[in-house]
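stage 2 :: seqdesign
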């Protein structure tokens, strides 16, 4: 039986975790992702990653549960998953020619002892100045209504970018693997030795 559980229903996060070559289960948690009053983008990303891991604790009492969540921010405004084509269009129009911050929270909960370690990864993305036709072309080819920011970095969304600044490219996809490897080693799981 695998010691690791990914608290996510995201195909992209499962694919990223699979790169480490470790066996794991995945289970989508049911949590309220509504921002709290006064909650900054950093606070929200970190809280949601912890809440996702903790939501599965009673189901996996002898495991390491990995929770992750991402929040987009422009001018300190929280930008969640657009949820519709029209909202995605509006987000991309607003992002055009601007720098957007993506905060990816990560939590590893060791349910054997109750210890939870967190990490917050910042990625900044400079979006090209986009024509209305480019935005419509993107929406036609890849309607990313369920992704923070309204695009998939791991797919055609990179055509929207001018540049990225990050310490971990996997963070923008949704699971910062460099930090995750460190947190797993601290919890006694070394991907290079398993």
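stage 2 :: out
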């Amino acid at each position: 039986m695998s010691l690791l559980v990914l608290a996510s229903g995201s195909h992209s996060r499962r694919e990223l975790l699979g790169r480490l070559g470790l066996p794991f289960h995945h289970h989508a948690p049911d949590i309220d992702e509504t921002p709290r009053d006064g909650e900054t983008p950093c606070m929200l990303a970190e809280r949601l990653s912890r809440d996702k891991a903790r939501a599965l604790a009673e189901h996996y009492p002898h495991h390491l549960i990995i929770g992750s969540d991402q929040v987009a921010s422009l001018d300190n405004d929280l930008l969640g998953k657009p949820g519709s084509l029209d909202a995605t269009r509006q987000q991309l129009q607003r992002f055009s020619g601007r720098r957007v911050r993506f905060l990816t929270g990560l939590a590893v909960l060791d349910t054997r002892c109750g210890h939870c370690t967190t990490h917050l990864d910042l990625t900044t993305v400079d979006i090209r100045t986009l024509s209305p036709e480019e935005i419509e072309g993107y929406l036609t080819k890849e309607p990313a209504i369920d992704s923070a920011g309204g695009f998939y970095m791991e797919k055609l969304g990179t055509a929207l970018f001018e540049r990225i600044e990050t310490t971990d490219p996997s963070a923008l996809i949704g699971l910062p693997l460099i930090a995750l490897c460190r947190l797993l080693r601290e919890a006694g799981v070394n991907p290079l030795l398993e």
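stage 3 :: structure notes
- The chain is about 30% helix and 25% strand.
- The mean pLDDT is 94.
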